[in-house]
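Final report, Chapter 2: Outcomes

The project's central promise was a pipeline that accepts a single protein chain and returns its three-dimensional structure in a standardized token representation, suitable for archiving and comparison. That pipeline is now operational. To close this chapter, we reproduce one record exactly as it appears in the project archive, with the input sequence first and the structure output second.
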Amino acid sequence: MKLTLELANEFFRGFYIERWNDIIRPMPFYEIDKHGHKLIIAYCIAKYEENKGNKIEWETIIKDSVFELLRRIIISDIKSPIYQEIRKEQQVFHHLNEYVFKKLENKFGDETLKNDFKLFLDSSNDRTSLTHQVIDAAHTYASYWEFRIVEATNPFTYQNEKTKWELTKRVAPYLHLEGISRLLSNFSITNFIDLCGQLRFQIRWSQTPRVPKTSVLGHVMLVAVFTYLLSLDVTSCEKRIYNNFFGGIFHDLPETVTRDIISPVKKSSPELDSLISHIEKKLTEKEIYPYLDEKWIDEIKYFTQDEFKNKIIDGGTTKFVTIDEINKQYDHSDFSPYDGEIVRFADHFSAYLEATNSIKSGIKSDELIIAANDLKEFYLDKKICDLDISVLFK
């Protein structure tokens, strides 16, 4: 199985790594939050390119982003301007990537995935394709988005102009991308990206003391990573992997307008759960979709409505099915298969890691202990498509 507990914990370290940590900022910025935001930005930029008829390699966007997060976790001590200079020195950059690989090679339980990661590191300087331009543009804009907040907190520092100039210089090569042009010109998509960025300020388990205080934005990135790794063991259908990954990224999108309502409150009665879902749908229609290109809305709805149900699209109609049915009959891009059960597990496993990491750090409460034990018991001897997911809780 490609997802191991060791690898999952490595990704979870992204919640501990602070960005912009040498200057005043209104709150901590974490590495995993930035990568979650980056992927939402990349999705939008790539969709604009597809609207123009350009070919986007979505598998590359997904794999590149997952592996880049791993690399950034290892080299977190290197500030961005220094890292950009290191990339220009091919031999030095090669040695840095060798160091990254050596630090992580024992975390992989699957040779194919480990070899893919090595290939990613070895080819990291080849960024000429349109797809790589989309990824790099999104990465730079996500940093620029953070900088605007940092700049407002430090209005008198001489470093602002220098940092702004460096970011402007880095984003300039991507102005031909319609998505970047629209974002910098404050089109409506800018409001959508701002809304999604606010998910980094929403703290999960907000009534429960714990460390780290994970955000909704970092959580959806972790869910997407876990969903992707599990999906690779289940299917080779590119559309299914795409749907599952971005289903993980967008599954909490309604929380941009409703906030994170904890599960015990939602599940306190069927009527309340149903009402919250209805309100989320109504507010999403009113406050999120108007900022999106009309061509994307149906897909975003597919990711955010009934997000934990297995489904396909057959003849233009969404149908709920089992994973076994997807594997036997619908494992083809024509049916746009989506494994809500895998997304749900990834959501639960992320919550389990949030609880257990806090407990291991000495910050524990009855809520955290009960949540961790309940999830572990729930997935005891459970399998998804013959994958023994219970081993992740041992």
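Archive annotation: The mean pLDDT is 94.
This record, like all others produced under the grant, will remain available to the consortium after the project formally closes.
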